[in-house]
Design goal:
Layout: E1 8-19, E2 22-34, E3 39-43, H1 50-57, E4 65-70, E5 73-74, H2 80-90, E6 91-94, H3 106-116, H4 121-134, H5 150-162, E7 168-172, H6 180-195, E8 199-203, H7 207-210, E9 215-220, E10 223-229
Parallel strand pairs: 3-8, 3-9, 6-7, 7-8
Antiparallel strand pairs: 1-2, 1-4, 4-5, 9-10
The protein binds adenosine-5'-diphosphate and magnesium ion.
Length: about 250
């Protein structure tokens, strides 16, 4: 691992699903490099391969061919347990389905990854309190996931993903179930952690979310068709995320 290695590098990444004998090409030769501290939004129509791409980058789906490098280390050749260690140490993941542990409280769901990552209990608790507070969930800490709305579960999943201050935050439509007030809270938190240097790769349909990114990568039929920096002057400053509530979606 070198200090200036990109956090993510995908080289000619391909995923072809084989279901019922018919090959379904989901990702068709993606090259993508994400530097430390970058916030990259991935956009594209439904079925364009966004979820498949970020799942592969997090080791949750195997590649058909190509290479994945994380933090300067080859990752696509890791075993499942190797990926599990890498995820625990370096990756925070927000899935489209939130995968909270049903028989644990919200607080424990959020603290667990930090504790597993070796963060001292007191620090894990403080981080959890900070994240739940930022997301308007402070009073839900002792609830169980089943007692939460979909939007609340989604925000808990984001808090959990950030608990460990991971090297990389991967998120698949983290505002997909949120109303504008909760979207604003999520955007404000993403802006804050990005400002603190958090590297983010995030799938979104929402132009307001994408407008906070440094770069927007557009996928179509499993290929990158556009990859452009957002000019700083046009970027939504994180402090202005409060404006979001005024926008119509
Ligand atoms: N587990 C799977 N088995 C077979 N085909 C899949 C599977 N997951 C996704 N696909 C197909 O791969 C393509 C890309 O899907 P996906 O990555 O979910 O797109 P997006 O997230 O952009 O909507 C679609 O054609 C989808 O039907
Ligand atoms: Mg998807």
């Amino acid at each position: 691992m070198t200090a200036d290695a990109p956090v993510v590098r995908a080289v000619n990444l391909v995923k072809i699903y084989q279901t019922g004998g018919l090959p379904v090409p989901a990702v068709r030769g993606v090259d993508l490099t994400v530097e430390a501290g970058e916030f990259v939004a991935i956009m594209g129509p439904s079925g364009s391969g966004k979820s498949t791409l970020v799942h592969m980058l997090g080791g949750l789906d195997t590649r058909t061919s190509g290479e994945i490098w994380l933090d300067g280390k080859r990752a696509d050749t890791l075993s499942e347990s190797g990926w599990a260690v890498l995820r625990r140490e370096k990756i925070g993941f927000v899935f489209q389905f939130f995968n909270l542990v049903a028989n644990m409280t919200v607080a424990d769901n959020v603290e667990l990854p930090a504790l597993l990552g070796g963060v001292p209990p007191r620090q894990a608790r403080e981080r959890r309190e900070y994240l739940l507070g930022e997301l308007g969930l402070a009073d839900r800490a002792e609830a169980s996931p089943a007692q939460l709305s979909g939007g609340e579960q989604q925000r808990v999943a984001l808090a959990r993903a950030l608990a460990n201050q991971p090297r990389l935050l991967l998120a698949d439509e983290p505002t997909g179930n949120l109303d504008s007030r909760n979207t604003r809270d999520v955007l404000r938190l993403l802006g804050k952690v990005h400002g603190q240097g958090q590297t983010i790769v995030l799938v979104t349909h929402d132009a307001r979310v994408a407008s906070m990114a440094d770069r927007v990568v557009s996928l179509l039929d499993g290929q990158i068709v556009d990859d452009g920096a957002i000019p700083k002057s046009r970027r939504r400053p994180s402090g202005a995320a409060g404006d979001v509530v005024e926008l119509r979606s």
